[in-house]
Amino acid sequence: MDGSLALSIGNKMITKDFKKDFDIITTMTEPFSFTRYADGEHAVMVGKDIVGYDWRMTENNVKATKEINDGVEILRTVNPERNFIGVSCPCCDEPKHTFFKVKFADFFAANRITYSNLFVNSNYDSAEKWFKDMIIKRPIFLINGKKKEDSTFNFIFKNSILFPSNILEANISSLEDQALTQARKSKRTYFLVALGPYSEIIIPKMVKENYDNFYIDVGSLVDPYIHGNTRDYHNNNSQFRSRVCNGV
Length: 248
Fold this sequence. Notes:
The protein is α/β, with parallel strands linked by helices. The chain has one domain.
């Protein structure tokens, strides 16, 4: 697929409708990347202290701040028509939405922006089914955590590059090299990434290494199989399971 055709398809497909965009992102047949930016990514971008699940960002971590912003520039310049971005929606976090609308003004103008919450809230049931269906595509996982002894999803750990906890501050150069090597030698392979804000550092690097793969930040979608339920929408009776995000 040449760049002009990919761009026209991208402009036609991304609708900013919460349900439709989920279907679009999960059924794309040509290699692409999907990175997602919300409160954690914002904190890293501006160098603000924040604690997430199994990771933290401190204001003196200038390396992470530089790398996540450098990653945005990679997405702007390396096959940009194939790089889609999810950002905070005004219904969930209006201040972050306003920040990202400026930060990613060119992506908004090019119609390559959708929801950072695309895999959660009222889309969670569909996302979980899609995630399980991905098994047949033999994806490679980039995750942090340790194998649960009672895990029924051992396939995740058989095809994983396991990163340590507190990833933004750990020495992970050898693991990063392993991920980039795997990206370089792969072709039309799915890479499912769940590494907190570091996902938005490593995915652009893999895009730069080889854009002929599918790089998707799946975030907490993978948590129940590794860490257990970590978010409200993992629970069937959560009010978030009916929330339809809008206005991105």
